[in-house]
Write a structure and sequence with these properties.
The protein is mainly alpha-helical. 56% of the residues lie in helices and 4% in strands. The protein has 14 helices and three strands. Strands 1-2-3 form a three-stranded antiparallel sheet, with no helix packed on it. The chain starts with a helix and ends in a 6-residue tail after the last helix.
Length: 330
């Protein structure tokens, strides 16, 4: 493990027992929890910095860590120090989760006799409301991507673009789930798709009529044209060379459609693939869907994650009330 201390030039090297414990915990997360590569990389950086803090304090193993050391480390993350800027609340909360998980793992594996992080409260990140597009803006975006009756030069790409965006909004799929979908994962006749989500979890979701129409037009008239330039791939969405469409390629398609629809593509209000996922969830709840049904459709492991969307609908109700009720401003 290349430590933060070495990068910072302090010369402090965490003890072998600390490095082994971190490696064991990360292996556990990889095998047992199935965390994504990006999450594991973030945890590795967080724990790299944590064991460097322990090394600087002369601590050689997790059995010697006290609650005060954990609290001090988490406080330093928020306050910053000479070698690091202050962490944002969300980043500090993730680091706290990594540290607490490491100590729980150490207790289970007999590497420590107690969990010093058990009573340490992690920082609470501010709750940010997801941004959802109004329904008419979504419709404008989808129609800008290309008509399902497109013909002539560029028709194959136009049909693909429309099918991709209809699929994202019609299923609530993450961008990785959309570009990772295989043809055999679709049942257009039944209007259903198998999505492969985080941690190896799969879920079967319905596909709406507009998305079915766009997918059928793409699969029949466009995908064979794009596939002719490639070497054969089961991916649903293909690039111009016949290979699987990348995440960046999907972003480019959405950005182009957003520009054509007059929607922001830069700054905090920029439309992203996740904007369509947010819009999908919010519009379902606005239409009366139960939050636990939306949880299943989104593939959230906990309903708590989904409940943030209910805040969006409450905010919208407040706006309507404030402008429509004669005594709202009193």
């Amino acid at each position: 493990m290349t430590t933060t201390a070495r990068r910072a030039g302090t010369g402090v090297e965490p003890a072998p027992a600390l490095r082994r414990a971190v490696r064991g915990y990360l292996d556990h997360l990889t095998v047992e929890r199935g965390l994504s590569t990006n999450t594991l990389a973030s945890y590795r950086r967080d724990l790299d910095r944590y064991v460097t803090t322990l090394a600087e304090a002369g601590i050689a193993d997790l059995a010697s860590v006290g609650a005060g050391t954990v609290e001090s480390h988490l406080a330093r993350l928020r306050a910053g120090d000479d070698g690091h800027p202050p962490r944002a609340a969300a980043s500090a909360a993730r680091a706290a989760s990594a540290v607490r998980g490491l100590h729980r793992f150490a207790l289970r594996e007999g590497l420590a006799g107690a969990d010093p992080s058990r009573d340490v409260r992690p920082p609470t990140p501010p709750r940010r409301l997801p941004r959802a597009l109004p329904v008419d803006a979504v419709v404008r975006l989808l129609e800008t991507a290309g008509p399902v009756t497109a013909t002539g030069d560029g028709a194959a790409r136009a049909l693909r673009d429309r099918a991709l965006l209809e699929f994202l909004y019609g299923t609530g799929a993450r961008i990785s789930e959309a570009v990772g979908a295989a043809v055999d994962d679709l049942d257009v006749d039944e209007g259903a798709a198998l999505l492969r989500g985080k941690g190896g979890r799969t879920r079967l979701v319905p596909i709406g009529g507009y998305a079915v129409e766009a997918l059928r037009a793409y699969l029949v008239r466009a995908r064979p044209v794009l596939a002719a330039g490639g070497r054969g791939t089961p991916a649903v969405f293909l690039n111009a060379r016949g290979g699987p469409l990348s995440r960046q390629g999907a972003w480019t398609i959405l950005r182009r459609a957003a520009q054509g629809a007059g929607l922001p593509v830069d700054g905090p209000e920029a439309v992203s693939p996740h904007t369509l996922r947010h819009s999908y969830a919010t519009h379902l709840l606005d239409g009366g869907a139960d939050v636990r049904v939306v949880q299943e459709l989104l593939g959230h492991a906990s309903v708590t994650t989904t409940q943030v969307y209910t805040l969006v609908t409450v905010e919208r109700l407040r706006e309507v009330y404030a402008t429509a009720h004669p005594r709202a401003r009193g």
